[in-house]
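Let us begin with a simple case.
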Amino acid sequence: MKHAFWHERWSENRIGFHQSDFNRWLTKYWPTLELSGEEAVFVPLCGKSRDMLWLREQGHRVTGVELSDLACRDFFTEQGVDIDAIEEGAFHRRERDGITLLTGDVFKTTRPLLDTPRAIYDRAALIALPPEMRVDYAAQIATLTELGDQILLIALEYDNPRNEPPFSVKGDEVRRLFSESFEIIELDSADLSEGRFENQREVVYRLVRR
């Protein structure tokens, strides 16, 4: 999506994708990655997700990248602190207590900029991107990872595709996007019969860089 789309969504507070509680798949399946807790974790298109607090509670250093500066500012404000952004190349950086938020384009990130992450948590990035951008996103993720790095990926599937996020990204597309660089393990899924879309379900994957 164009940058203006997301800036408008945040400025108008149309953020139905934001979750006030920790994601149930994160708390259930993050332990299956068998990390020590000391690793750096990258959260792409992080918004102001409270999941970053949960990851920090597990001992991780967390770096989130988000296009909206408003979202990054609000994340820290809601934790009771106001942090001035520091310009760092193409990004604005805010950092406190092991959580770093970078305002900018996820496609301009580098592994060192993200504190050399060993794991990635993607709940809302892949499904926020239209098909042509998902190909570039998968390629970017491959450049940001090394052998053994892992991703906990949560995808959304539904019938009758639409032209705005959240997009449906089904299993065959996940495999097409990532199988060249990652081993893909489907961990779980759940029917969301009360969801907004027809035949909606969430699917959780673990990806391991090879």
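The second case is a distinct protein. As before, the sequence precedes its structure tokens.
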Amino acid sequence: MRAYLQMALTVLLSLLGSTMLKLSHGFTNLPPTMVFIISYSLAFYCFALALRTIPLSVGYAIWSGFSTAANALVGHFYFHEALGPAKVFVLFIIILGIVLINNSRIPMDPAAYYNRASQIIR
């Protein structure tokens, strides 16, 4: 459960970072640029913590899918970008895919996960 809270924080921090990236106007506006750098750094830190227990493929699917959907909503409501029925449908399919990926995996004991990873590194 803790890993999924870390993933939620990862998504929220990357959403903040993406929004600040848009507001930085190509890194010419310093305050949003600094918030972008800090929020993405923290997002990667939270992602690394979550990956202690969540498989990489599932973690990245969660991060990219939910971030894509959240950025589309911020783009629509804050930046007045188009969000038609086709986009909403595709975002729904992305989130459905994340749910299916997450529920289709075979749970692995975290200790076995670390042992397997250390064998790959050696």
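The chain is about 80% helix and 0% strand. The chain has one domain: 2-121.
Keep these points in mind for the review questions at the end of the chapter.
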